[in-house]
Amino acid sequence: MSNFTFHTVDTAPAASKPMLEGAVKQMGSVPGLYAVMSESPETLKAYQQLHQAFTSTSFDAEELTVVWQTINVEHECTFCVPAHTAIAHSMKVDPALTEALRNQQPMPTAKLQALHDFTLAMVRERGNVSDEQIAAFFAAGYGQQQVMEVILGLSQKVISNYVNHVAKTPSDPLFEQFAWSK
Fold first, then answer.
1. CA distances from 68 to 20, 54, 65, 180 (A)
2. Per-residue pLDDT tens digits for 102-115
3. What are 63-80's pLDDT values in tens digits?
4. Which of 18, 25, 48, 180 has the most other CB atoms within 10 Å of its CB?
5. Is the residue at 92 inside a domain?
């Protein structure tokens, strides 16, 4: 079993230091995910760029939350589910939606349910979704752009969920109130 290093600004590789300093300015501390990911500056940079890109998509705050949390829960990421619960609260997402996602309950609207179902199919089928699954997604009001955006969100979450799994990243104190397990 390997013990992964959780870097601080002082111990991180030089190329990771500016990104960790930015996290401290923005969040007040270095999140555990960034601390472990900073071992590879390229991975940390890619993750941050994917996050920025995904939050700039056509999805609103509720839809972003549905994609993130659907993937986090399916991947059983005990770091990311609490973190994205806190993020959802900061984005003023209805806590009922967040709880439904955390507890694998139905979504409050048909459109969000279609997004949840499609995202879950993308994860479970590794992108090999059926024509029927795509048609149902389109029938709910989404299009080809949103298919690409779900894939973008999935790529971001694969990085963070898998890093947290291999490193066994403990929950940050900031997110402990939102602790989760499947």
1. 22, 10, 5, 15
2. 999 999 999 999 99
3. 999 999 999 999 999 999
4. 180
5. yes
Domain assignment of residue 10, yes or no: no
Is pTM beyond 0.70 here? yes
In a domain? residue 73: yes
> What is residue 27's predicted lDDT score, i.e. its pLDDT?
87
Cβ-contact 61, 95 below 8 angstroms = no
Whole-angstrom distance, CA of residue 78 vs CA of residue 171: 7
C-alpha–C-alpha distance, residues 86 and 47, integer Å: 19
153 or 174: which carries more pLDDT confidence? 153
- Cα–Cα nearest to 109, from 140, 154, 73: 140
Cα separation, 51 vs 85, in Å, equals: 16
Between CA 29 and CA 20 the distance in angstroms is 8
Is 95 within a domain? yes
The whole-angstrom separation of Cα 163 and Cα 4 is 10
Q: CA-to-CA distance for 47 and 92, rounded, in angstroms?
A: 23
Q: Are 65 and 93 in contact (CB under 8 A)?
A: yes
- Domain interval for residue 152: 58-178
Count structural domains, the chain: 1
